[in-house]
Amino acid sequence: MASTASEIIAFMVSISGWVLVSSTLPTDYWKVSTIDGTVITTATYWANLWKTCVTDSTGVSNCKDFPSMLALDGYIQACRGLMIAAVSLGFFGSIFALFGMKCTKVGGSDKAKAKIACLAGIVFILSGLCSMTGCSLYANKITTEFFDPLYVEQKYELGAALFIGWAGASLCIIGGVIFCFSISDNNTKTPRMGYTYNGATSVLSSRTKYHGGEDFKTTNPPKQFDKNAYV
Predict the structure, then answer these.
(1) How confident is the model over 172-198, as pLDDT tens digits?
(2) CA-CA distances (angstroms) from residue 219 to 13, 80, 211, 216?
(3) CB 29 within 8 A of CB 21
(4) Rounded to 5 degrees, what angle do the CA atoms 136, 140, 141 make?
(5) The domain 1-28+69-189: what is its CATH number?
(6) Contacts 24+ apart (CB under 8 A), 152-156
(7) Which residues form the signal peptide (predicted)?
(8) For 111-145, what is each residue's pLDDT tens digit?
(9) Given this model, what pLDDT does residue 209 score?
(10) Dist CA 100 CA 88 (whole Å)
């Protein structure tokens, strides 16, 4: 029962992390920078993996998509690949988890389901590592440019999408570890011994048992009747 509960918790945690990781791809604010005036913010610059935009004080945004994938910086291409791999691995991990959980009717025997659940945990861990690596690579580029005194172009800060990606990656890794430990819980359980009840042995059947290939039967001695019995 405890193993089933841990698998349900692992599934909910992993799915929550996968949803967060998936939501980072279309999120706008991977990096953000603002230009402040004397009274209000005059412009906000932000960018993600697909475009770069600027929003003025009236709320009007002007965006520009990246012109060519081959002309992009190497870290953006790497982040795209890692995040797409994280989403894809999380999708397959959720399918494996559904087949490997004890509360489902598919997947075969308990031993086979435990192996599938462990495989789902490994896939979720890989998904979390891909997301963690992609977000960390993007954040490292931002911080390197921000603290570089020789960098004279627009400097950005960490956006909300990076923190969402880190949180989702952490949940995927935690859920995957719980799935992997669920197989050890199944192996430590000792199988129950089955006993069959044959019923109580009667005295007559115990007397008619075979002993050395011979059948011993109880014979009644001949009755002796008195002469008064015929009267």
Answers:
(1) 999 999 988 877 765 555 444 444 555
(2) 77, 95, 17, 9
(3) no
(4) 125
(5) 1.20.140.150
(6) 154/33, 154/45, 155/33, 156/31, 156/32, 156/33, 156/45, 156/47
(7) none
(8) 888 888 899 999 999 999 999 999 999 999 999 98
(9) 47
(10) 19
Model confidence over 58-73: pLDDT tens digits?
A: 778 888 888 777 778 8
Burial 171-184 (b: 16+ CB within 10 A, else e): bbbbbbbbbbebbe
Cα–Cα dist 176/109, whole Å:
21
Length of the chain: 231
Quick check: helix, strand or coil at residue 5? helix
Encoded amino acid at 227, one letter: K
Query: In angstroms, rounded to a whole number, what is the distance separating the alpha carbons of residues 114 and 102?
Result: 8
Q: Report the distance separating Cα 69 and Cα 55, nearest Å.
A: 24
